[in-house]
Design brief:
Chain B: It is a multi-pass membrane protein. The complex is a heterodimer of chains A (120) and B (557). Chain A is mostly helical. Chain A is built from three helices and no strands. Chain B is an all-alpha fold. Chain B has one domain: Sodium/glucose cotransporter, CATH 1.20.1730.10. In chain B, 77% of the residues lie in helices and 0% in strands. In chain B, helix 4 packs across helix 9. Chain B is globular. The chains are: A mainly alpha (120), B mainly alpha (557).
Amino acid sequence: MRLSAQPPKHHRFPDHPAQSPLSQARDRAVHLDLAFLVPNALCFGTAVTLIALPGDLLATRLFSTDMTVGLSLYLLQAVALLATAHRFDRRSARLLDPLQHERAEANATAMPVQQIGGFR
Amino acid sequence: MNHSSTFLAAAADDPYALVLSSFMLFMVLALFGSVFAGLRGDSPPEFYIGDRQGSAWKNGLALAGCYVSTSLLLSVTGVVATVGFDGITAATSVLLSMGVLLLLARPLQLSGSLTLGDLFSLRAPGTAPRVAAAVATLAITAPYLVAQLMAAGNVTAALLGFSGIGVQQMCTVLIGGLVVTCGMLSGAKGLTVIQVIAAAVTLVAMIFASLAVLRLFHGDVATLLTAADAHSTRPGRYLSTGGLFNVGPTPRLDFAAGQVMTVLGGVCMPHVLSRVSAAKDTATARRSVRYATGVVALVCVTVVILGMGASARVGAGAILSGQSNADDSLMLVAGSLDDGLGSGTSRLLFTALACAIFLSVLAVVGATTLAAAAVLARDTYHHLVQRRQSDPTRELMVARIAVLLFGVLGILLAVLAQGRSAAFLAQLATAVAASTVAPVLLYTFYWDRFNRTGLLWAVYGGTVLSVGLALSSPSASGGSQAFLPNADFAWFDHGTPVLVSVPAAFLLGWAGSLVGRRRAHRQQAEDASVTTAALLIGRTAATAAAVGRTTGRRPSD
């Protein structure tokens, strides 16, 4: 199975001449999603793995302070989420939002949306 | 003596009078505001999701209002108070699920969906996906509605100073009746007002209560943590895992699966998805989720602080005395702040927290009822019974009747279930959402080859597995804290069904799509590719690109 979130190698560069405008736009969206998803998924995956593993690594105190590995990991997750969400929003506004407005203006005679895909 | 100090002195003299009068005044104002906001004539879409005119801040607060439920405010606070670390993990997972929602915000808004049936039909037109959506929506919303109504009855009875089942049932009926009336009259526009007020009041009340708790410990979190550790059910192991799930062959794996359930299931509730669809454009949808994430993050931090405060000030033994759960922790810690704040201010804070919980119930129950009514009126009546030919006025009437019927059914079930474990029902709803809606949405938005067969296999397989395994787990029967303590038919020896149901639903979606693909021809495959693009970058852009592709020119030329 190939997920559409994993573009083939020649699609890595958004402005590659071999790509259609549709796949360029689509790849741009997928890259943005992945840039947001990967750090958060890594943090969450690490936390879930550490929970599932035997032993009590999460309760280990850091440098003899009250802060434990578990607390610092969850704090990191929260900070990573808020930071990447801010970045994701900014980049989406810069790269994807204008695309919709441009197309809407340039596409007065476009094919009705019901004729593509499953939309109705 | 100024007005403020007179008011506080009166509060100290007659605390219950103040609490009750403030509470009733607040509720009447909130309900009046919601019904007034929804009085203008509605079209069916406006009744389901609102007028799509709200700003990002308003939408964000409304989203936070329908997302922050009593499960987070009462149950997670109780878990932090009694066992510590597992509650902190649960609060973090609630926050992380907002990240998943941020990812889904753009395609959700671009899909223009009003119900889960509209979302399911993006890849698979026809009646079967709409029936599947109706089944999934009812399987999620029914237990969730009952759990929220039960919690509302408990909190209101406690506020009145009663703890008997009869009073709780009466409170459940009264509050349920209020919410159903409000939902029928005002629809989504009126509920938006309640959700915004609920989020704002909850945030402010929780922050003030947390500051009051921290003040009692001179702002020293380490001292608070030490006191919480000493008075918890696990002294010395307060920051270790294993407090919540400690039975069965793989308690740690069960707990990790529970986190996955919270992250995937929390955002896949139909009423939460509708709230994101209600944004006017993708930028507003994204910003709404960002602002809601900020609000939920703050609420989660306060839940952890107040949970620790409850353990430190009240003690886990006192919280659990005579109770099967620790859901009373929040109100107990709010009632224990007299010596730090003075009894007047303490009572005001107690009232504010009670109002916050009650408003959360109103916001969540109203949204849940509306989501169920929307799927009944639009997916079942409009699309299946009337073959998309129904009159909008008639569809609106059917929607209002559906709110009434579903609400009354929920109230009856909540009355019957009062006194049993509400946590089981909330977990059941989350598990079904994680096992049905999450795989379908992720495949719909990110996998071109997902089709009707895959969708039906994932939805029905996920529903049967999650409901069947939840009913066969020790949370349903076979223990003193189970939902049915006098019965014993548990054979699935794990704390949560998602350990099996979520991977199975993803596998079924994939396998079904492979089977269904053999029947599809090439044109459908190309259309699916354009559908994916439309969900990622917008219908207009995808249409323009498709025109460019078919005519051999660039759409921007």
